[in-house]
Amino acid sequence: MRASLLQIDVNEGESIESRRVRVASLVREQSGSADLVVLPELWTTGAFAYEEFASEAEPLEGPTYEAMAKAASDAGVWLHAGSIPERDPEGPLYNTSLVFSPAGDLVAAYRKIHRFGFDKGEAVLMGAGEELVTVRLPETTVGVATCYDLRFPELFRGLVDAGAETFVVPAGWPERRRAHWTLLAQARAVENQAFVLACGTAGTHAGVPQAGHSIVVDPWGEVLAQAGAGEQVLTVEFDPGKPAVTRDQFPALKDRVLGVAAPPRR
């Protein structure tokens, strides 16, 4: 199976509509070279462009949905179209990922559960998702997570219990914490014996330099491919059957001990 991670440069001098057209063209260019294409988190606005979230938010089936559905269909690929600031007409904004089939059908939407910012930014401007999301591809079951989710192993355990063998993680990860990005991607792969396909952005979002360095990690924690800092298409071929083989050869997941009571506080 081949995957292409499109590490998009979110340039503040480029309009959102121009970027949308450019990214759709990049998706189409993966036709014949990838089965799965992955885009970063909030690549329309920039993950740190908090002041633009409300003004640029769009309904689930808005302009980004329409452009990415058409691009997926034209390219004949599974497309994780990264995430958008979604405006729910009956609720708050959400950081929502969209996944399309090769026919251009929306097969999943994931509202980010862990919002970054502590008491500001995304954490106060957007609502939290409440549901884990997996997508069954012909070759593998994908578990969907977004950026800050990478710091919370419980979410990934839940995705494993739901059948995930490959994690797809779009992100807008800052350069100043790039070491954590690589470390956490490898940790989530090793502890869950799964592939991790983590796609970040390049450029600068609202003055915050982005880490880039999109990465693909195998179930043993080996880095199969990693991008540099700038805009790049990172294409890698991997064996979707490897998680099952790894879990059979080294069945650590069977030794999980759940429900251990915490000791009383003193």
From TrEMBL:
Residue ranges of domain CN hydrolase in the record: 1-240
GO terms assigned for molecular function: hydrolase activity
Entry-linked Gene3D superfamilies: Carbon-nitrogen hydrolase (3.60.110.10)
InterPro entries assigned to the protein according to its UniProt record, in alphabetical order: C-N_Hydrolase, C-N_Hydrolase_sf, UPF0012_CS
Top-level taxon in the UniProt lineage: Bacteria
Keyword annotations of the record: Hydrolase
Family: Belongs to the carbon-nitrogen hydrolase superfamily. NIT1/NIT2 family.
PANTHER family associated with the record: DEAMINATED GLUTATHIONE AMIDASE, NITRILASE-RELATED
Protein name: Carbon-nitrogen family hydrolase
Source species of the chain: Streptomyces muensis
